[in-house]
Specification:
18 helices, 405 residues, single chain, 2 domains, Growth Hormone, Chain: A, globular, mainly alpha
């Protein structure tokens, strides 16, 4: 296979920084209403469903848009796709400035949710064109880290800003930092100038039908898609119902919020450290197995403990290992399908992950409704991890220096 990159310039770090800023913004804007739902409901006079839709529209649109955005990435390239995303995001955030109207507020969130896949789904494409095989996972890891930094910023900063400045002023501040991020990427974000001319010709001749046929013809890619479904489903199910799950053990809402932050904090560390180790030892499969093994082993005691200290330690372990699955899976995808089809394959991953998020959340609620206990949903999570562990064992090592044909 032809190597796309012929020169890795120091400018890739500039592109990485402005790209990470854009990634963090997508998560920041997605969740910025989640911690202030009561304030929004009272100020606009709307119900729980409407305010919840400001956040839930994102995974729903991700299901619809991930696959076509992936195809666009491989047909038009990284710069074009992400620039389109940040422009849509920049325009949409201005719509939210009419915050006294739910219609305008929702229109802004809808537009930002459209933009999100154009940016998030480009992480592995960026890594494949700007970083060589020995740095690919850390590039994916830093992109993943930016996602979780954006989540934490939304949950921590929004209540503080709204309390001190009011909802309207907070949205103006958010509009300013979003427009700055959009402008910086459009001006500084670039495709690798050393991309081979043959790749550029291939982009012009891109065929979605042939791309999907190629991807689905690879057994390891199908296994990764299933693991992605399980991993994203587990994370979203756990974070969505954590208060319900842990309140049964005597934890307060404040305590579960702290534990949730610890999980994401552990994930940020894992998204950097695990990729570094993976690149250092030139191995992917062992870390995939380790993540599913630890995740499955720790989940049961985590959801049954009554000790805050134990919950914090086990929560940090879940975050550290389970969230680190994402950059490993993204890099393995590139190594399985090749740089040429990375965008299309990543789009499929994000599509399946979004479906997993929705399915697991509602499955857990369904189990609770028929058994009158969220505790029984724990067995669903455990079964998923057993399946993920088996699939991780079956998948082949994908690092170019270790892979076997």
């Amino acid at each position: 296979m032809e190597t796309i990159q012929t020169k890795y310039s120091a400018y890739r770090w500039v592109v990485l920084i402005v790209f990470m800023y854009a990634i963090a913004l997508t998560q920041f804007l997605w969740l910025n209403f989640a911690p202030i739902e009561t304030v929004v409901r009272q100020q606009l006079g709307i119900g729980v469903f409407k305010v919840g839709l400001l956040t839930s529209i994102f995974p729903l649109l991700s299901i619809i848009l991930s696959a076509p955005v992936g195809s666009l990435l491989d047909a038009k390239g990284f710069k074009f796709t992400v620039s389109l995303g940040v422009i849509i995001m920049g325009v949409s955030v201005l719509l939210r400035l009419k915050y006294n109207s739910y219609l305008w507020l929702f229109a802004g969130q809808f537009g930002i949710s459209v933009a999100q896949p154009f940016i998030l789904n480009s992480v592995s494409k960026f890594a494949s064109i700007w970083f060589d095989k020995d740095e690919g996972v850390i590039a994916n890891g830093l992109g993943s880290m930016a996602m979780f930094l954006g989540m934490i910023a939304a949950m921590v900063l929004t209540p503080l800003l709204v309390k001190s400045n009011g909802l309207g002023n907070a949205l103006y501040i958010y509009a300013g930092i979003t427009l700055l991020g959009s402008i910086l990427f459009v001006l500084l974000g670039k495709d690798n100038p050393s991309l081979s001319s043959s790749l550029k010709e291939e982009e012009k001749e891109y065929s979605g039908k042939n791309a999907y046929k190629n991807i689905f013809g690879k057994k390891d890619m199908i296994l990764l898609l299933i693991i992605m479904f399980i991993g994203i489903g587990f994370f979203n199910g756990l974070m969505t119902w954590m208060d319900e799950l842990l309140s049964q053990n005597g934890f307060t809402t404040v305590q579960t919020g702290t534990i949730g932050g610890i999980i994401i904090g552990g994930g940020i560390l894992g998204a950097v450290i695990i990729p570094l180790l993976s690149d250092r030892f030139k191995r992917r499969k062992p870390f995939l197995i380790l993540a599913t093994l630890v995740g499955g082993a720790v989940t049961y005691p985590f959801l049954n403990t009554v000790s805050m200290t134990t919950a914090i330690v086990l929560g940090a372990m879940i975050g550290f290992f389970v969230i680190s699955l994402l950059p490993i899976i993204l890099q393995m995808t590139t190594e399985i399908v090749g740089e040429r089809l990375t965008g299309t394959a990543t789009g499929l991953l994000m599509l399946i992950g979004s479906v997993g998020a929705v399915v697991v959340i509602y499955l857990m609620e369904w189990i609770k409704n028929i058994t009158n206990s969220f505790h029984n949903a724990l067995w669903l999570l455990m079964a998923f991890f057993v399946a993920a562990l088996v699939l991780s064992i079956l998948i082949r090592e994908t690092h170019p220096d270790r892979a076997k044909s």
